[in-house]
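hey so u asked for the seq, here:
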Amino acid sequence: MLWEAIVLGVIQGLTEFLPISSSAHLTVLPQMFHWETPWLNSLSFDVALHLGTFLALMGYFWKDVWMLGRAWLTKGWTMQGFQDPQAKLAWWVILATIPAVAIALPFENKIETIFREPALIAVCLIGAGLVLGWAEYVSRKQKTQAGMTLGHALVIGCAQILALIPGVSRSGITITAGLFAGFNRETAARFSFLLAIPITGGACLHKFKDLLQLSPGPETTATLAGIVTSAVVGWLCIHFLLAYLRQSSLYIFVIYRICFGAAILSWVFLK
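ran it, structure tokens below
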């Protein structure tokens, strides 16, 4: 159980932030390799992995969170709130989170159940990957964070709703929306990660009670291993992706999504 938990933690840390869909990997790979340990397929362990990536986000962006929070509390409610860059960005993150929360709460379980089949996940992987490639091709990539408006933030926030569908990828679809809006890759990715903080933190807080039911034993050890692994790998992945996107395109992830989706379809039809 321990080594499987570590592997799943690595997968979560990598795929949560790279635009290749963590839900697709965590749903399909255990089936492919016949990892049938009940605890590792439970909601509680899923919460643990997301807690790890939330810690990665907070560890990497703690300065941003501190500055945005301070600006929002001190200036966000004043007439200058939308003139101060930090307070304005804080408002954009908050307002862009609302659409996903409004849809996720009533429909999350139903959407995940409908799109749980590996073949559908593969189609979503390939389809969303092609859209990402289109955005990479047509985007002018000239705008920076200073050029973001409320409309841009809401469009990216609404795009985040599609991430409820396994295979789409939360980071992938929000970066895609950012590119279509004309932002450069790093700006689109950075806003995507900032937008992930409230949605991931809220989900962990909502489901944290499941982790409190753990008693000392192998399941606790595996859970802690999953949290630590996903947190460390997630932090490294954020650092890598932001540096990579300053110089390189997203086509490598488009190719990976198409190849992984094709591999899933082959597995489905041949098994």
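Residues 61 and 194 are 8 Å apart (CA to CA). The chain has one domain: 2-270.
lmk if thats what u needed
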